[in-house]
Amino acid sequence: MVRDAVSAPDAEGRPRRTTRRFPLFTRDTARPEGGGRAASSDAPAPARQWPILAVLFLVGLGLLLTALDVFRYGTLLIGAALLTGAVLRWLLPGVGMLAVRSRFTDIATYGGLGLVIVLLAMMAQPDPWLEIPFLKDTLHFTVS
User: Fold this and answer.
1) Distance of CA 100 to the CA centre of its chain
2) Span 58-83, pLDDT tens digits
């Protein structure tokens, strides 16, 4: 005897019939992998969300340094904050609101943007700390 396929129970605990059609309206979304609290539920809210707060604190400090005309160090700190977010997302099982998408996508996004910001900060004029010769040649080729 073949029965209809049944998925996870609904909010009331009754089994639902599955269908291959997409629902007309989205009723809920899945929590991202690792999106649970970073501390126990009896801890205060800031302690439960310490990973995102640490990254936001570093970004805020970097923006403050940039506003105080310490551009290179401020942008380096912003890039380092995003790289820290990628490392936290990779190492910790639960990172709270730092988890936005899947673990791989979060790590790739935070790490990629952090690396680009750090490299651009190191290449900023005047007196860049990092010079990539083919970029200068590309610029002269496209401008001339």
Assistant:
1) 7
2) 999 999 999 999 999 999 999 999 99
